[in-house]
Amino acid sequence: MTNGAAVSSGFAATDQHGSAAIEVARLTKFYKTTRAVDDVSFRIARGSITGLLGGNGAGKTTTIAMIMGLVLPTSGTIRVLDCAIPEESARVLGRMNFESPYVDMPMRLTVRQNLTIFGKLYAVKDLPARITQLADDLDLGEFLDRPNGKLSAGQKTRVALAKALINEPDLLLLDEPTASLDPDTADWVRQHLQDYRKAKGATILLASHNMLEVERLCDRVIIMKRGRIEDDDSPDKIMARYNRATLEEVFLDVARGRVQETAK
Amino acid sequence: MSELAIIGGIAPHRINAMILRYWYLLMSSWPRLLELLYWPALQIVTWGFLQTYIAQNAGFFARAGGTLIGAVILWDILFRGQLGFSISFLEEMWARNLGNLMMSPLKPIEFLIALMVMSLIRLAIGVIPMTLLALFLFHFNFYGFGLPLIAFFCNLILTSWSVGIFVSGLVVRNGLGAESIVWTLMFALMPLACIYYPVTVLPHWLQYVAWSLPPTYVFEGMRALLINHVFRSDLMLSALAINVVLLIASFAVFLALLRSARRHGSLLQSGE
Questions:
Q1: A108 part of a folded domain
Q2: B2 lies in a domain?
Q3: Which of A146, A159, B43, B237 gives a 20 to 30 Å CA spacing to A66?
Q4: The pTM is what?
Q5: Long-range contacts (CB closer than 8 Å, 24 or more residues apart) made by A210-214
């Protein structure tokens, strides 16, 4: 459709006078000869929830990993909470957190032990009280002293979310936060994320294949395909532009190259 | 975890958190504890009986009592020190937890210090019972080395950490496919560090290589102490100087490999 920089600038104009939570400019990543992310630019306003949509290999995970500093970009710049990544990441890592299917919590340690360790790493004040609060909020009480490896997928996801929230981050990066969850648990997690954003004014960037999730949660959607931004707007405006009733239909249009007949 | 932040302050609370993480793990798993004790005990019993047998049949070894058992214990400090470091690191790879740590405020230097402390703890669990076995079964008092033991220990543990840091960097960069190097690299030093024989046994050209390795100075120093009853402080100082260089070099290599892992996206893949 259009390149990332052009598309993103329209939406990002809403916060161009304030400092954005995330500013990505001309971000490109090559893995050897494979271009995983191709000249992507966007700004994400503080306090917003933004969804990164795209099929497998679209570049969502690599983009998030670069924002987190786990992957170095080939070119381009990233600023997170006013700090350049990776140069100033030490200044900002304590104010952000993440959840990803690419990492696990240590299996032999109990939930309480895991949360204690991460709480200490993030220098959380009054850690026992924070763990108790998270246990209440995320309903972890009954398995707080059980090893992480003995939990169900849904329970593990809640624990991973507790770890991601342990430091009450200003910026939360989530890669497939509700993957492998039953609809009830997934709905519950989404509600919790909304509540957290509302209570703390936090910024959330999430990559997802779940279109209903993105429709429900996100103020804004960035659609990626083959490493480039295909579209970038609010869910309602994107659906209107493609003349579709759901984001899933939009996603299929983009994935199957029907963009020309619809959005254009 | 930002490698560019190493010049910033080191936070003891983050180091403590990592030590606590490995302590919880160790205490939750009896096979891990047993493994720490089993192999050192087996080593000391085997080599102790061999030393006893040789001493009964060879005049030199009768005079130089304890050189084999002493060498076995010192070798175990070197080997177990590195394994104690590296296994704690591998636990993060096996648990797929490295990404969580890399994204946390933990700095590489803090992570490595925690691994060093864990190598000391694991070493103590494995080697102290080993020295007691040597005392009760073979009447070899390892602590009879006295103050020189501190010099031996410090030099060996510094070498073990350098190797541990280097192989951990290889695993960060190449994934668990490089795990076998963790278990075997130290054995490459074994023939060159002259654990059980003097450096003069080696061909002349190979002696230069041997003298580039800090453990060689320690094992030569141990033999000088046991056979000639002389503490060679010159050897210990030479070993310390090489160890300082090795430690700095291994840390630089670790950071370079970590950066390379970030460039290649290896931190997102903790498998092979």
A1: no
A2: no
A3: A159
A4: 0.88
A5: A210/A178, A210/A179, A210/A186, A211/A53, A211/A246, A211/A247, A211/A248, A211/A251, A212/A246, A212/A247, A212/A248, A213/A51, A213/A178, A213/A186, A214/A51, A214/A53, A214/A247
Closest CA–CA distance from residue A148 to any residue of chain B (Å): 11
Closest CA to A223 of A255, A188, A182: A255
Nearest CA-CA distance, residue B31 and chain A, Å = 13
Total structural domains in chain A?
1
What's the average model confidence in pLDDT over B224-245?
94
Q: What is the interface size between A and B, counted as CB pairs within 8 Å?
A: 112
- Residue B59: DSSP 8-state: H
- The answer for residues whose C-beta is within 8 angstroms of residue A121's C-beta and 6 or more apart is B14, B17, B18, B101, B104, B105, B106
Residue B56 belongs to what domain range?
8-268
| ipTM for the predicted complex | 0.86
The alpha helices in chain B, defined as continuous H runs, are 12-27, 30-57, 59-63, 67-94, 98-102, 108-138, 148-174, 179-189, 204-210, 214-228, 233-264
Is residue B66 included in any domain, yes or no? yes
Helix (H) or strand (E) holding A161: helix A153-165
Residue A87 forms part of a structural domain: yes
The whole-number pLDDT of residue B58 equals 66
Contact B106 A89 (CB under 8 A): no
User: 3-class DSSP state for residue A125?
Assistant: coil
Is B1 domain-assigned?
Answer: no
- pLDDT at site B228: 87
CATH value at residue A68: 3.40.50.300
CA geometry: angle at A103 spanning A226 and A151, to 5°? 130
Using the Cβ of A250 and the Cβ atoms of chain B, whether some distance falls under 8 Å is answered with: no
Residue A196 structural domain: 4-103+170-255
Rounded Cα gap, residues A10 and B153, in angstroms: 64
* Structure-token pair, residue B185: 């690299």
Q: Tell me the chain A residues in contact with residue B20 when contact means C-beta distances shorter than 8 Å.
A: 116-117, 120
Tell me whether residue A71 is in a domain.
yes
* b/e B122-131 (16+ beta carbons within 10 angstroms → b): bbebbbeebb
pLDDT single digits (tens) B135-191 = 988 888 888 888 899 999 999 999 999 999 999 999 999 988 889 999 999 999 889
